[in-house]
Amino acid sequence: MLLKKQTVWLLTMLSLVVVLSVYYLTAPEENAADMTATEQMEKAENKTESKTESKTESKADTKGENKSEKETAKNTEGSSVTIASGDEFESLRLQIEDERAKLNEELTAKMGNTELSSEERDEAYAKIEQLSETKVKENIIENLIVAMDYNAALVRVDGTDVKVSVKADKQTKTEANNIIRLVRKEVSDAQNVVVDFQPEK
């Protein structure tokens, strides 16, 4: 009888030791996994911060370079056609987006200003909606132009004025007319559409 009690006691103690050892062996791995996950998240946040900082620095650098390239092209040829660098469209697009983001912030602040009348706040809201619609139209037109076998396109809609810059080696009136027709389909109130062909490098 006494022997049975001792064996039962021994077995329970052994099982308890096994359970505890398994627990301690698996618990540090979970903590380590949690720590590695938090470290990875911190690294990702640091990378995104450094990317945004480098983007703002590169924007400032590319703006200065693009201005100098445009000035040299105007001085040498005496015309308004600019020589496109590899990423000129992208830098111009970023510049336009920055300007619109600032305008959007101002309009949003107007909407939240309770001192202004409801008409003024409604007007600010309408302008914000117009900005987003303009951006969507520009993206659609750019995609349609690229689908016409052009390497790159940049569209700027400003009210009834639309300026289209296209990278292409060949410049024909027929191609320009096709682009103008396409723009007028998408932007019904477009009155002054200018197509600017820029040579590939």
UniProtKB/TrEMBL annotation:
Keyword presence, Transmembrane: yes
Record has 4Fe-4S as a keyword: no
Keywords associated with the record: Membrane, Transmembrane, Transmembrane helix
Protein name (record): SpoIIIAH-like family protein
Organism whose genome encodes this protein: Peribacillus simplex
Compositionally biased region (Basic and acidic residues): 40-74
UniProt lineage: Bacteria, Bacillati, Bacillota, Bacilli, Bacillales
Location of the region described as Disordered in the Swiss-Prot/TrEMBL record: 35-82
Pfam families for the chain: SpoIIIAH (PF12685)
Transmembrane portions of the chain: 7-26
